[in-house]
Amino acid sequence: MAKREKKQFAVIGLGRFGGSICRELYSMGHEVLAIDKNADKVNEFTATATHTVVAEATDEKALTSLGIRNFDYVIVCIGEDIQASILATLLLKEMDIKNVWVKAQNHYHHKVLDKIGADRIIHPEYEMGMRIAQSLSSEKVVDFIELSDEYSIMELLATEKVAGKTLIELDVRAKYGVTILAIKRGEEINVSPVPDEMIKNRDLLIVIGHKNDLKRFEDEGL
Ligand code: ATP
Ligand code: ATP
Ligand code: CA
């Protein structure tokens, strides 16, 4: 089989979640195969996917004939029909697809997906809820990524308190145990900033650390 240089994605289930993944990947220039059992859904995506196809995700023959085993990433975005989501995931893992990412509906669904080898399990409502709660609880928290139970990356808004100070002066690593990965200023992003970089009011600081330390930095440092 010929080796491809480019990444290929297949999205199964074009609801709100799968649909937005499909559109976003396509707009970033990736090759995306959009699959749904509903022909009307599929038709909505003809302009925002590389290929579209009406297929039943639990039909092994249909999946095989799509050549889905050649895809680097398959994202299963079937919500209501948990049984179909599980069966499709099982078939895809049996086909040895390296990266099968699946949307989970609940804890039970998650457990089964985990057992059958889903490579990443996503809970959009839960994860988005956490992010929204984080940004509601503080005006300073712009975005939030949970890395584990203990560690996160946060996008924090720099305040007057730190404006005009350099990273050396702030000394956040020693004081709070957190690391500033990048500084966003308008459209510009400065990745791995130098120690004498000066922070301005309203800069966005992308900070990694233990949740407790991040909280302390947010409360006391900013
Ligand atoms: P949303 O992302 O909008 O919240 P949802 O998680 O509630 O969606 P559904 O609306 O149940 O999920 O399904 C998402 C899409 O997946 C629908 O467009 C549906 O037609 C498609 N779908 C469901 N089951 C299958 C299947 N077995 N094979 C292919 N597509 C399917
Ligand atoms: P999820 O976030 O799990 O995807 P959903 O968006 O599908 O949820 P629902 O499950 O329909 O939304 O509703 C969410 C919650 O809001 C439920 O607990 C429901 O009881 C509550 N709810 C729905 N309508 C009302 C209402 N008119 N007044 C108060 N609570 C309501
Ligand atoms: Ca839903």
UniProtKB/TrEMBL annotation:
RCK C-terminal domain: residues covered: 139-222
Domain RCK N-terminal: 6-122
InterPro entries attached to this UniProt entry: NAD(P)-bd_dom_sf (IPR036291), RCK_C (IPR006037), RCK_C_sf (IPR036721), RCK_N (IPR003148), Trk_Ktr_HKT_K-transport (IPR050721)
UniProt superkingdom: Bacteria
Gene Ontology molecular function: monoatomic cation transmembrane transporter activity
One protein family per Pfam: TrkA_N
Gene3D superfamilies: NAD(P)-binding Rossmann-like Domain, Regulator of K+ conductance, C-terminal domain
SUPFAM superfamilies, per database record: NAD(P)-binding Rossmann-fold domains (SSF51735), TrkA C-terminal domain-like (SSF116726)
GO BP annotations listed: potassium ion transport
Protein name (record): Potassium transporter Trk
